[in-house]
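Our preliminary data section would be incomplete without showing what the modeling component actually yields. Below, a chain of 532 amino acids is followed by its predicted structure, encoded as tokens that our downstream tools consume directly.
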Amino acid sequence: MNFLAPLQRAWGNLTPGQQRVLIGMGVLTAVGLAFLISWASRPEYRPLFTNLTESDAAAVTAKLDERKVSYRLSNGGSTILVPRSEVDALRLQMAHDRVLKGTNVGFETWDESPLGMTESMMKVKRQRAIQGELERTIMAMEGVEAARVHLAQPEESPYLDTKLSPTAAVTLKLKSGHRLSSSQVEAITHLVSYAVEGLSPQNVSVMDSDMNLLTGTRDPETGAPDFTAKHAEMQRQQEERIKSDIQTMLAQVLGPNKSVVRVRAEMDFDRTKTTKKTVQPTENGKGVPTTEMEKEETYKGTSAPPGGVPGATSAASVPTLLARAQHNVNNALTSRQTSTQYEVSTESQTIDKAVGTIKRLTVSVVMNNLPPNKTAQDMQAMVANAAGVNPARGDLVNVSVMPFDTTHLAAEKQALEKAQQREFYLTVARGALMGLVVLVALVVGSRLFAPAVRRDVPRVFELPEARALPEGVILPTTAEESAALPVSTPLPSEPEIEPLEPARAEEEIQLHRLARDHPQDVARLLRIWLNQ
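Predicted structure:
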């Protein structure tokens, strides 16, 4: 059985135009399948390395060419893409071969040290190694894309009385959208200072690639960092925290966008240390005796007691002295002394006040309307409690109720509705256009392929019944018999037939024979002709 016969008959039933359209569609389908197969079999590329320097990119590509690995370059040659299945193996191989040198050279620079290096060359090489190691460490931190460290280490000189201190400058290139906090900058400062001998944190400066100083200003006399920016940030954070607490509470009570809150906080950043000593009173008013001492002295003798005028040596005093000398008197002297020491109770207290306390707080709230059964005083008390207001500090809270201006909101809402309506119309238009394209394609396809389909679909037609020939009339079967028929003898009840040429007579005889032997095929052929 020939399976191609139906296809050949279908192809023969098509018109030349339909055949060309079908051939074009076949070619397009073949091209699409070839492109799809090529795209599906193409390897998926993934980044092997990114942000490479020119020297590193050249070294990596040379290594890939040596290993005959296909690769692609992007981002101006700084990114190298390789097939996904080979990424991990290639990274390990590149690390083993030490292909990536980079601009940050660390202590591996000492791996190739030539003989005969002078002391100054060794110092420069050591400084370069320290800078490279610091750059690598800083670049490993989150948010840092690139880093450069510059060290200035003065040489010691016997002719200078004072020793110069080393300094350092760090330049950072941060990743897009990233910002370092003050604590992170301080960490980088301490990292550099502790990695270099004799370098203090005050002598380290950190800046970003946009020329913004991250370490802040310093006191020109002491070199200590100026905390003005840090204090301003602490104040802003405190204000935002209080504002967020109040705004969240009012949004739950009044609804969103129904209140406006502003907070101003006056902070005290002075560090004070107070020592207080308190004397506790006692019941007797004297205190508690701690030491008691009693001293007693006794003197005895037979000498005459002193007398006369002190300092006088005149003749009048001589008899008196003689009389006292002749009269001996037993003398005795007793001295007693008592001493008691008292101590009172004392209390010592040292107070170290924290930095960044609130000295005064001012809160202002504007509401669009009041909630049911609430007054402005009630809302003010609620806001004061939420903000932690202390009247003793002089804190103030003001709550005002006034309608908000919503004209801009109405304009924005109208513009949004117009944009949504325009987007809806565009969506409908796109859908209608796609539907129209599909409809036109269906109509054109139906017009192109309708004749071929109609040829394949049989239709039933009722043919008139064949009439029997009169007796004695025999149809000719050969051309000679047809030519031998008399021209003037017409068939009964049939119109007069003109004589045929021999060739056409032969064809007519074959048609009669075909109709007699294959009546169904002849009927189907006639139906097809009638349809056309």
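Residues 275 and 350 are 4 Å apart (CA to CA). Residues 314-318, 452-464, 487-495 have pLDDT under 50 and may be disordered. Preliminary results of this kind motivate Aim 1 of the renewal.
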